[in-house]
Structures are given as structure tokens and as C-alpha cells.
Amino acid sequence: MNRVIEVRDLYVTFGRPSGTVEAVRGVSFTVARGRVHALLGRFGAGKTTVLEVVSGHRRPTAGAVRVRGVDPYAQPEAVRTGTVWREGGLFPGLTVAEVVDTWRRWTLDPITRHEALWQVGLGARSTARFEELSAGERRRLDLALALVGRSDVLFLDEPMTGLDAEARRQVWVTLRSLAGRGVAILMTTGDPDDARLADQFAIMSSGRMLDPGAQPRLRAA
User: Fold this and answer.
1) Contact between residue 84 and residue 146 where contact means Cβ atoms under 8 Å apart
2) 48, 74 in Cβ contact below 8 A?
3) Which residues are CB-contacts of 121 (< 8 A; sequence separation ≥ 6)?
């Protein structure tokens, strides 16, 4: 198995006036090339904190994280990754093409606008204004921006939040297409239905991963 993401015995502790809080406790998992891995849990389970660490946006308290063999926090420029946070981007007044072109100007060695939009199925919408896009198209535009830097590893924080059934289907088609081209995807979700659609998933609660034996039960539910 070509392991792209490796997390071993991860701990994250926050200091609070009332004392320290262990937000993540002993989490371990791997994600292979071309696979979609979901972290499933309720709000406060610790899954977004894990994503922040693995994407290089937060230093772990203990444990080891490697993305293509590199510590993403210590060497953020050494690996090409893309991140989409839950809120997504807002680009009022701009066309899809203008949004991507602006992002490309901020990116070292970007892919072409055509390639970015083609990868997420928005090639025919380049002249549409942001306000004209559906919720699903806006999320796919977020994915296009995450890919501009030639990313083959994506971190997605609850990418289906606020989407209706058809928009979710469109985004999943895009994720499957990206995985088919070798992109490794780590996503968080609070929805068991999305977890079932991933290649593999882990259930988180109170900062820990639950017994893997719960996964077959979830898939069968």
C-alpha cells in the first residue's frame, strides 16, 4: 500500500483557564494514494483538530504525523497539499475564471485555469459569476482552488455541510474522480451516510477513535 498520510499516536492538548484539555488522544491511521478516508464524529469529537494538525496548521502535542514522509508543520513547503475548510470561500462579483486566475497569481507553479476547472467538472462554468453558482458548484470551486498548487493530497473539513442531495452527489462524483487520478483525500464529516461512501472511515468521540468493530455495523445500518 502506498501510504501518503501517516498519523501515529497523535495527541493535542489545549491550555484553558480551568486546566488542560486533551482534544485528541492517541489517534492513529493511514491514508493511501487514491483513497478517500473519512473521520466521522459529532461536533467537538476532535476530528477538525486532527485535520488542522495533519494539514500542517497546528503543532501536535505528541505523536508523529507524516504526509509523503514529511512533517507538515515543520516543513510546510515540502509537500503539495490543498485544504478546504467548512465555511468555504466567498467571491462576490467575480466570475469563476477570475476567481481561479486570482488564486493562480498567489500560487507558485500553478496548474492552468482550464485544468483546475476540468478536474472538478466546472469547465463549462468559467464565465458564470460566483453568485450564479449552486451550492454544489461553489464547493467544487473550493476544490478547484485547493488543486491549483498541483496538490495530490486534499484535506476537507465537512465538505458536504449545507448541501442538498443533488449537490452532495455532484461533490462525491468529483471526489471519486480525483481519487481515481491518485489524489489522497482526508475528510471530516458528521454524517454516517458520507462515511459509508468513503473507502475507509474512523469514528471519533471525545478525541479518541472508537473500536474499529463499529465500522462494519455502520456500513450495514
Assistant:
1) yes
2) no
3) 140, 170, 173, 174, 177
Q: Which residues contact 70 (CB under 8 A, 6 or more apart)?
A: 78, 79
Q: Is the dihedral of CA 53, 58, 62, 68 positive or negative?
A: positive
Per-residue confidence in pLDDT tens, the chain, 221 aa:
589 999 999 999 987 666 788 999 999 999 999 999 999 999 999 999 999 999 999 999 999 999 999 999 999 888 889 999 988 888 999 999 999 999 999 998 999 999 999 999 999 999 999 999 999 999 999 999 999 999 999 999 999 988 899 989 999 999 999 999 999 999 999 999 999 999 999 999 999 999 665 555 555 44
Residues in a beta bridge with 20: 15
Query: What is the SS3 assignment for 151?
Result: coil
From the list 166, 177, 109, 98, the residue with the least C-alpha distance to 143 is 177
Nearest-CA neighbor of 72 among 51, 85, 83, 57? Answer: 57
| CA separation for the pair 134, 17 (Å, rounded) | 43
Sign of torsion, CA 115 121 124 128?
Answer: negative
Angstrom distance (rounded) from CA 40 to CA 26: 16
Outline where DSSP puts E strands in the chain. Answer: 3-16, 19-32, 36-40, 62-67, 82-84, 153-157, 184-189, 200-205, 208-209
